[in-house]
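During the no-cost extension, the postdoctoral fellow (Dr. R.K.) reprocessed legacy sequence entries with the updated structure-token encoder. One reprocessed record is reproduced below for audit purposes.
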Amino acid sequence: MKTLNFTEQDVDRITDAEVANLAKRLEQDDYKTAFEGLEDWHLLRAIAFRRPEMVESYLFLLDMEAYDEA
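Re-encoded structure tokens follow.
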């Protein structure tokens, strides 16, 4: 099982193909445990914050709503 020990460098080095594979796993939602899915979700979320252009097509998987802090 993977752990949540991904680093900023991991996020900076991730490829488009790896993001697509991550999104596919999340969309299929076929994990042995809920924690495995949560780990993938946290990784996709980290990518969204550091490299938003890579996850534009997959934002629906994050269920993040835009809001105005003002």
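The radius of gyration is 12 Å. Residues 8-61 form one domain. The remaining legacy entries will be reprocessed before the final report is submitted.
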